[in-house]
């Protein structure tokens, strides 16, 4: 089993190192992995002149699974796309056709007190945001900034989805709902955007193949409200690229911190890209403050979905629960009376707990 590790920028390398530690702890008395590392993001640009170096893409195509950290910085966000670190990730997802980004939002009982939301709202939250990753306004053309006849600048992006792109992610959503509580909520803006009217129509058509799944629809603005007001009512949420991006950061707050949210980006085959939902967090990079649990939980998803190691995946998840129960907290989830630890110490605690699980 081969894993390609792409640490990237900012806190990417810091949190990814802890996930690698967890995988090594799993491997100490279990499945063996071959791990290789490659450059992406600003790091790719500096090392090989491209945020997605050709060698990295080739290695990604050969690997069984990819563990990714974060790409981009505020500085490179301002550069043209071909030099933007974050663009390397967008291109990688697109090149591997990883269209289905599963973002489980689970409120750990141990962390209820770390959220800014009230206990009775978030207790028992267990939902999945399924974000489409390869289409939408992030990729549609025409795009760019031009000047009109009067010299005024005009920015353009295009929200675009093919029927096929909607259909395949809808199927992924219904299949996921079937494995959970049989509820799928499709989020769109069908009242204003033609692209999203098509979205709703196609999801509804696909739904006829899944009579056992209850399908509902929400407009994205209302969905953002319901997500905070009655999050327990949601099971699987399927939505487009940009709405999924925004809704899942909001959903992160149900769990206490964006540092708790893992994700899996999957295509039609078994290969997947596993990544924390958060970015490179330049404000805390290099300070041993980042929460590595999102990255470690992403590694658990990798064990489950791409490497066929369900038991190991459960051991990693149980280890995370154990360290939370023991009171280990990085600053983002710190509570009075808890044990304040840094990135490294949290990673060490999880690695040790994995040993006790197995
Ligand atoms: P961000 O997710 O990096 O940070 C948002 C806030 O959450 C910050 O205050 C940060 O300190 C905190 N945070 C994030 N991860 C954390 C963790 N593991 N533990 C504790 N606190 C954490 O989003 P932001 O600030 O909008 O973007 C920063 C850079 O990352 C930008 O250059 C952006 O383009 C890039 N980015 C990359 C992503 C990726 O590679 N998947 C996703 C989102 C942003
Ligand atoms: Mg985002």
TrEMBL record:
PANTHER family: 3-ISOPROPYLMALATE DEHYDROGENASE (PTHR42979). NAD(+) binds at residues 279-291. Catalyzes the oxidation of 3-carboxy-2-hydroxy-4-methylpentanoate (3-isopropylmalate) to 3-carboxy-4-methyl-2-oxopentanoate. The product decarboxylates to 4-methyl-2 oxopentanoate. Binds 1 Mg(2+) or Mn(2+) ion per subunit. Pathway: Amino-acid biosynthesis; L-leucine biosynthesis; L-leucine from 3-methyl-2-oxobutanoate: step 3/4. Mg(2+) binds at residues 221, 245, 249. SUPFAM superfamilies: Isocitrate/Isopropylmalate dehydrogenase-like. Its cofactor is Mn(2+); Mg(2+). PROSITE patterns: IDH_IMDH. The record marks 138, 189 as: Important for catalysis. This is 3-isopropylmalate dehydrogenase. The gene is leuB. Its main location: cytoplasm. It catalyses: (2R,3S)-3-isopropylmalate + NAD(+) = 4-methyl-2-oxopentanoate + CO2 + NADH.
């Amino acid at each position: 089993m081969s894993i390609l590790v792409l640490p990237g920028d900012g806190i990417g390398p810091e949190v990814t190192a802890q996930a690698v530690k967890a995988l090594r702890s799993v491997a100490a008395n279990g499945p063996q992995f071959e791990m290789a590392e490659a450059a992406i993001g600003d790091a790719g640009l500096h090392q090989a002149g491209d945020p997605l170096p050709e060698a990295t893409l080739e290695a990604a195509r050969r690997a069984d699974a990819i563990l990714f950290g974060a790409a981009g910085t505020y500085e490179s966000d301002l550069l043209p796309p071909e030099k933007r670190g974050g663009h390397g990730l967008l291109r990688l997802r697109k090149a591997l056709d990883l269209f289905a980004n599963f973002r489980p939002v689970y409120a750990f009982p141990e962390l209820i007190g770390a959220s800014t939301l009230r206990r009775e709202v978030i207790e028992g939250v267990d939902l999945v945001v399924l974000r489409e990753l390869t289409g939408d306004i992030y990729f549609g053309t025409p795009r760019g900034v031009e000047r009109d006849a009067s010299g005024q600048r005009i920015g353009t992006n295009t929200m675009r989805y093919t029927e096929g792109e909607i259909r395949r992610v809808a199927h992924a959503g219904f299949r996921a709902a079937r494995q959970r509580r049989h509820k799928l909520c499709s989020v769109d803006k069908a009242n204003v955007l033609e692209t999203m009217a098509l979205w709703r129509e196609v999801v509804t058509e696909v739904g006829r193949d899944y009579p056992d799944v209850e399908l509902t629809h929400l407009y994205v603005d209302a969905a953002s409200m319901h997500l905070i007001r009655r999050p327990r009512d949601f099971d699987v949420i399927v939505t487009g690229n940009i709405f999924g991006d925004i809704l899942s950061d909001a959903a992160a707050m149900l769990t206490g911190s964006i540092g708790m949210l893992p994700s899996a980006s999957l295509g039609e085959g078994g290969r997947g890209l596993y990544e924390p939902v958060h970015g490179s967090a330049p404000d805390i990079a290099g300070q041993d403050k980042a929460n590595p649990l999102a990255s470690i939980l992403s590694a658990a998803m990798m064990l489950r979905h791409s490497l066929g190691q369900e038991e190991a995946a459960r051991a990693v998840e149980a280890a995370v629960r154990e360290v939370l129960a023991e009171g280990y907290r990085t600053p983002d989830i710190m509570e009075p009376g808890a044990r304040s630890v840094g990135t490294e110490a949290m990673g060490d605690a999880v690695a040790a707990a994995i040993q006790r699980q197995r």
